[in-house]
Amino acid sequence: xxxxxxxxxxxxxxxxxxxxxxxxxxxxxxxxxxxxxxxxxxxxxxxxxxxxxxxxxxxxxxxxxxxxxxxxxxxxxxxxxxxxxxxxxxxxxxxxxxxxxxxxxxxxxxxxxxxxxxxxxxxxxxxxxxxxxxxxxxxxxxxxxxxxxxxxxxxxxxxxxxxxxxxxxxxxxxxxxxxxxxxxxxxxxxxxxxxxxxxxxxxxxxxxxxxxxxxxxxxxxxxxxxxxxxxxxxxxxxxxxxxxxxxxxxxxxxxxxxxxxxxxxxxxxxxxxxxxxxxx
Length: 280
Known about the structure:
It is a single chain. By secondary structure, this protein is α+β, with helices and mostly antiparallel strands. The protein has a domain at 92-176 and 222-255. It is built from nine helices and eleven strands.
């Protein structure tokens, strides 16, 4: 794809043109945790980092996000293969216990997100970022009751380039809220990347003691919405039902991650960095 090749050239210039020193690259300053290891996601969960994968704590994930012109809450954690062909972002939303007995109307959710994205574009314009359009579903919402895992993926389109952007979303339900997981990947490898991530979540992720969905007790805080609203933006979607689309718009403006092109430009550097550390 020509736009990715162009981005690769531009990023290679920015990353390597001014200096070949490792410290000139902002990614070199981040505290990468390499697998095999176990990573801690705040005080809510842990996940196994396999060999060939890397993890960033909240402070370094924020630096990573801001370097790629993305809004960061400061409470996100990054997990990715060490060549950054794709990466995932983890953040916990303390909304309470989400009852999982509702059904999801995929068409209604899509309409809500499209309207919210229009509002979100106003925020993106103010920030000088490209606007987005929602093309449709890449994966319709699916909920696994056994693993308490909800997943879906929208196809978005960058209006300035016409290129498609897909964010694959996962929500892991816990006792006091949900762990939000967003996968950022090139569409060409999304199927492989999402399957790999799902395996890592089902085999290596677990909530901390006392935070598991099964540990719910009477008197615990219960979320004000269910599965369908989680797909449409959580609390923002609830506001949208009342006609306040600006709320969901602001949420969606920050939710889309335009980072893949920049990550592509760092692949060669990361291979050299992690290869060097391995040999040492």
